[in-house]
Design brief:
By secondary structure, the chain is of the alpha+beta class. The protein contains 16 helices and 16 strands.
Length: about 525
């Protein structure tokens, strides 16, 4: 092959490789932007909700970014990365899942423009990382320290989180419940984190969200087994938490017993009664007067004969306790789960001042109050008129709890309404004027990406986004650092006076995660498919 032809062949291969890399990167960016655009309309108090229809016919109505992305059937691997991004934000901060996805989409849009200017992906990634550090520094400079004993500040933060939810009209009732729940399970003076496993959310269909309450103890949606006339209210309760069955044992292998005479049948039934009566007597001997029975899949946990014996002994029985709830129950009432009747003793019993079955508009529930660990473990009893509202109320309360947890982790607040994002944009644009080489382009692109949050807030509220964001930018340039978009009034106002605040951790975590994800997507230059084994 002649020298010119060889050179042309090499040049052609290089061009093909470069084009393939460009196509892969463009495909990844478009896939991620499509996901971000899908949930963009859900941002803010005036954001729209999504109706998610599952294959089995179940329906979910929500505007929570992590929930929407979790339910979406995403095929593209980069699109799945955004779902993981929202999940990571949900785990760490509990709020801002929609925000982090939208910021990621806007940064990828900025990346595409920089790539079109032939700036190398590694240069862009390094520039974005340094820009994110400056953005976090800006956020910390405008943050205000909050004291956990200042309940009003915590309430404002919880209300801001709830204001964008489906149940936003009930934020006045749910925010105090979330704040009180967290403050009860921690020491505000020394706490640096909150274990949300100490707060149990129990749902019961019926009533309205107004009926939601905080219980210092336990709530069981299972009813008391009263078929044999057992008690429905017990004071000074001694509670046994059992993980074994009080029913006739079964053989290890499937077998049939043939009884040829009625006297033999009588002996079998008598032995069953004696076996069950012996267990009931051992339980009564310890002083137990309330029995919580774990749900059994092997055989019946209790029988009618058992319930009859326990009713005569004045022992309240609550069956079908879920296995996942055992740990929370044992910590709350101070009981030790008992795996067999041989180990049933008074030392393993829990205690409570009152165990009572109460009626609700849709069935009955059992409440356990006056527990020894009162305040260390609490239950949020959520009510709702239908399953969709009930599920969304649970998600909203969980987000509010996570917001308070974020304030416990990092005791700083920043204002909302797009104020923090505009402040980042202005600071980065000012810094870009001091840079050299490619950095000014990268910093400006990174700064412009953050304006997507106030722009989207205005757009979702039906305002003129260009005019609103321009006005907001001018007010921040003149020194009004707490100015933000008041979507309810349709104007720019002081977000601090409007009590629209959020934890610093939520926004800083969103900036870090979005930048890391963009950097990861940016460095992908090929997709390799593997064969199925």
């Amino acid at each position: 092959m002649s020298q010119p032809k060889a050179a042309k062949a090499i040049e052609s291969k290089v061009h093909e490789s470069s084009q393939k890399t460009k196509d892969v990167r463009t495909s990844n960016i478009l896939a991620a932007k499509a996901v971000a655009d899908a949930i963009r309309t859900s941002l803010g108090p005036r954001g729209m909700d999504k109706m998610i229809c599952k294959p089995r016919g179940d329906v979910v109505i929500t505007n929570d970014g992590a929930t929407i992305l979790k339910q979406m059937d995403l095929q593209h691997p980069t699109a799945k990365m955004l779902a993981d991004l929202a999940h990571a934000q949900d785990v760490e901060a509990g709020d801002g899942t929609t925000t982090v996805t939208i910021i990621c989409g806007a940064l990828l849009n900025a990346v595409q423009k920089l790539l079109d200017k032939n700036i190398h992906p590694t240069t862009i990634e390094e520039g974005f990382q340094s820009a994110s550090k400056l953005a976090i520094k800006v956020l910390k400079d405008i943050a205000q320290k909050v004291d956990l004993t200042d309940k009003e500040a915590l309430l404002h933060s919880a209300k801001t989180s709830l204001s964008s939810k489906v149940v936003s009209q009930y934020s006045g009732q749910l925010a105090p419940i979330a704040v009180d729940a967290v403050l009860k399970v921690i020491d505000p003076k020394t706490a640096t984190n909150v274990d949300l496993r100490d707060i149990k959310i129990v749902k019961k269909l019926g009533g309205t969200i107004d009926d939601t309450e905080l219980v210092e103890g336990l709530v069981f949606t299972q009813e008391v087994s009263t078929s044999a006339g057992g008690p429905t209210s017990v004071k000074n309760a001694k509670i046994g938490l059992i993980q074994f069955q009080i029913s006739p044992p079964k053989t290890n292998v499937e077998s049939s017993v043939i009884v040829s005479h009625y006297s033999a049948l009588d002996r079998v039934l008598k032995q069953q009664r004696d076996y069950l009566l012996d267990i009931c007597k051992k339980i009564k001997k310890t002083g137990c007067n309330v029995l919580l029975v774990q749900k059994s899949i092997l055989r019946e946990a209790v029988t009618d004969i058992t319930l009859n014996f326990l009713a005569k002994m004045k022992i309240m029985v609550v069956t079908d306790i879920e296995r996942d709830d055992i740990e929370f129950i044992s910590k709350t009432i101070g009981a030790i789960p008992i795996a067999s009747i041989d180990s049933f003793s008074a030392e393993k019993l829990g205690s409570a001042a009152l165990v009572e079955e109460t009626s609700t508009s849709d069935g009955k529930v059992v409440k356990v109050t006056g527990v020894p660990n009162a305040g260390k473990f609490v239950t949020v009893f959520v009510r709702g008129s239908n399953k969709l509202v009930l599920d969304e109320a649970e998600r909203s309360i969980h987000d509010a709890l996570c917001v308070i947890r974020s304030l416990v982790k990092e005791k700083y607040l920043i204002v909302g309404g797009g104020a923090a994002e505009i402040e980042i944009a202005l600071a980065l644009q000012a810094h870009s004027k001091l840079c050299h080489g490619m950095d000014p382009f990268i910093y400006r692109a990174y700064a412009e990406a953050f304006e997507v949050i106030p722009f989207t807030l205005a757009e979702n509220a039906g305002l003129n986004p260009v005019a609103i964001v321009t006005d907001l930018r001018n007010k921040h340039a003149s020194g009004q650092k707490t100015a933000g978009i008041n979507v309810k009034k349709g104007i720019i106002s002081d977000m601090l006076k409007e009590n629209v605040v959020q934890p610093l951790l939520v926004t800083t975590n969103a900036v870090k995660l979005a930048t890391e994800t963009v950097g990861m997507i940016l460095k992908i230059d090929d997709i390799v498919l593997c064969r199925r084994l």
